[in-house]
Amino acid sequence: MSGCEARDAKKLVRSPSGLRMVPEHRSARSPFGLDEPPWVPDKECPRCMQCDTKFDFITRKHHCRRCGKCFCDKCCSKKVPLPRMCFVDPVRQCAECALISQKEAEFYDKQLKVLMNGATFFVTLGTSDKSELMVCRLSNNQRYLVLDGDSHYEIEIMQISTVQILTEGFTPGGGNTRAIGMILQYKVPGSEELTQVKFTAGEDFSCNKKLAASWLAAMHKVSKGGKTSRVL
What we know:
Layout: H1 3-7, E1 10-15, E2 18-23, E3 61-63, E4 70-72, E5 78-80, E6 91-93, H2 95-117, E7 119-125, E8 132-138, E9 144-148, E10 152-156, E11 160-168, E12 178-187, E13 194-200, H3 209-225
Antiparallel strand pairs: 1-2, 3-4, 5-6, 7-8, 7-13, 8-9, 9-10, 11-12, 12-13
């Protein structure tokens, strides 16, 4: 097993909320992940925190796995996938949390896979007038933006401060636009200065234009959501 594979290794753990497949090392945790919330103690919730129904022998209480609050079965009956907490199976969630998790499913099922598969761009670092053809992808542990060409760079997702998507095709009267590139700024660890990187889809790689546009759209989705707080 290589060093990277060992660092990204996962283990199966059982929590009160269910089975989770989590990284063995905390340093390998995804920046898109969420910690399990503390459960509201049973003695502090005599009534459903949604409909105010009193709990008794017949009306049992249930904890939402996403927010940790107490609900009756009616208000907390949905079992929905929750990949941000690494749950293996769908888990019980209240109606509000279930809706959020269902919306996030698109990001995990589509955009995240697109980012990890990668796309090809001409990459320009800083104020350089030279660009390099590189394959850009999200690392397997989702912590780094990896740029591979003749050179190799890794940009930590948490250090990215701004993302600007470059488009073409806009007309004053309206019309479709197409993502053709991206400018991002990030902090190099140990420095407060921002470094700029520009990504441009090559015009002579028409077969990759659609892939590049999809990758840029997924990156925009990440940046618009605020990376760590939410993904939508």
